[in-house]
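Final report, Chapter 2: Outcomes

The project's central promise was a pipeline that accepts a single protein chain and returns its three-dimensional structure in a standardized token representation, suitable for archiving and comparison. That pipeline is now operational. To close this chapter, we reproduce one record exactly as it appears in the project archive, with the input sequence first and the structure output second.
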Amino acid sequence: MEEPEAIMVEKLAKKGLKFKAIPTYIRNLETAIREDPYINLKTLNMRLNLLGWNEFELDYCTLQLIKASLESGSGHKYFLPNLSREKPQ
């Protein structure tokens, strides 16, 4: 069985997001949800469009996958830089 995070990344890629853009999209989405935990899907899509994410419209199923991933903390392994790596000199 695939992890929810892998399904989420696959769904976002199929919707047209480039893999390298997914972390930034997730961070923007997470920020919008933290600012307004009761934000509805339509308003969330409008806010993301204002930030330049107008290639596609987020659907309810993908939103739930993203929320579950972020709430569990496991999604951050895909989206945060590896903090254990040394900085380039």
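Archive annotation: The longest helix spans residues 22-35.
This record, like all others produced under the grant, will remain available to the consortium after the project formally closes.
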